[in-house]
Design a protein that fits this description.
The complex is a heterodimer of chains A (about 120) and B (about 150).
Chain A (H helix, E strand, L loop, with lengths): L6 E6 L2 E6 L3 E2 L2 H16 L5 E5 L5 E2 L1 H16 L3 E5 L3 H9 L2 H4 L1 E3 L2 H6 L2
Parallel strand pairs in A: 2-4, 3-5, 4-6, 6-7
Antiparallel strand pairs in A: 1-2
Helix pairs in contact in A: 1-2
Chain B lengths: L7 E8 L6 H13 L4 H22 L7 E8 L3 E7 L26 H8 L2 E4 L5 E7 L17
Antiparallel strand pairs in B: 1-2, 2-3, 3-5, 4-5
Classes of the chains: A alpha/beta (about 120), B alpha+beta (about 150).
Chain lengths: ~120, ~150
């Protein structure tokens, strides 16, 4: 299994729970690396049920949102399921303003999200 | 309206490379923290600065190392004003597609300007479209929903 620099992946049943190592997802190189690692989960590891847990994330830029959107497309194309959880209120505002809360399925906590797959 | 009484200001000129605005942004955030601005305000200002600097470096100056980005920040007791200028050809901020429309919602880019307008109190671009002036009033309520393109050119 690949070793990731920007994310930590744990298996809970058949769901891959992804946490982020960076509290602030801003740096362009880190965002590019994060994007590659998320893509690799789907295209290399062939994971189909992904839950992104944002509990450690305090800030993210629109470039990071772009990587999440790209991931969503890849998961859907592979017939998988992507959900997000534990998004802090300020960051949730970013999703709400951009209406990405309608594109992504966002759950309050991890157990709710896991139960919904 | 009279000009606010500025209590702190900083000027930075940075090269057109990713991450070059880090120190300028960090300095502003540190000053806001010292002046006891709230976390929500600081989040909004950081978001707007990050997005505007990336726009200037990447879309304005197109990562041309010969071109610079100027960041000017001024702080009063209840207002911060940030001016970010690049040396690019500029753009028309009102011509950008609305990223919240269903047909654009899954596009990976195009949200920076909208976030800046939503999270700051006042945002204006110069006529050329290569300078943005953003203001945030301390303690203002949360981000604004963008319903339609605003006419906010100087």
């Amino acid at each position: 299994m690949a070793e990731y620099q920007r994310i930590v992946v744990n298996e809970v049943g058949d769901v891959s729970v992804v946490r982020f190592r960076d509290q602030k997802i801003i740096d362009n190189l880190n965002i590019q690396e994060m994007g590659r690692e998320l893509t690799s989960l789907v295209e290399v590891d062939k994971r189909r049920k992904l839950l992104l847990n944002f509990s450690a994330v305090e800030f993210l830029s629109s470039a990071a949102l772009g990587k999440l959107i790209t991931l969503d497309k890849k998961v859907k194309a592979a017939g998988g399921d992507l959900k997000l959880c534990r998004i802090q209120p300020e960051i949730y505002e970013v999703f709400a303003i951009t209406k990405l809360n309608r594109l992504f399925e966002i759950k309050e906590d991890e157990s709710d999200a896991l139960a919904s797959f | 309206m009279s000009e606010p009484l500025w209590i702190w200001q900083a000027e930075h000129t940075i090269p057109s490379q990713p991450g070059a605005g880090c120190d300028a942004i960090h300095e502003v955030l540190e000053e806001l923290g010292k002046s006891k601005w709230g976390e929500s305000d600081i989040f909004s200002i950081q978001l707007a600065m990050e997005e505007a600097v990336v726009n200037a470096v990447k879309h304005g100056n197109r990562l041309d190392h010969r071109k610079m980005v100027r960041i000017s920040s001024r702080l009063s007791k209840d207002l911060i004003r940030i001016e970010i200028s690049d040396e690019g050809a500029g753009f028309d901020p009102d011509s950008l597609p609305d990223p919240t429309e269903k047909c654009h919602r899954d596009a990976p880019g195009g949200r920076g300007v909208m976030l800046i307008r939503s999270f700051m109190s006042n945002v204006a671009y110069n006529a050329a479209g290569n300078q943005v002036v953003m203001e945030k009033r301390r303690g203002e309520s949360g981000p604004k929903q963008q319903c339609s393109a605003e006419t906010d050119k100087k």
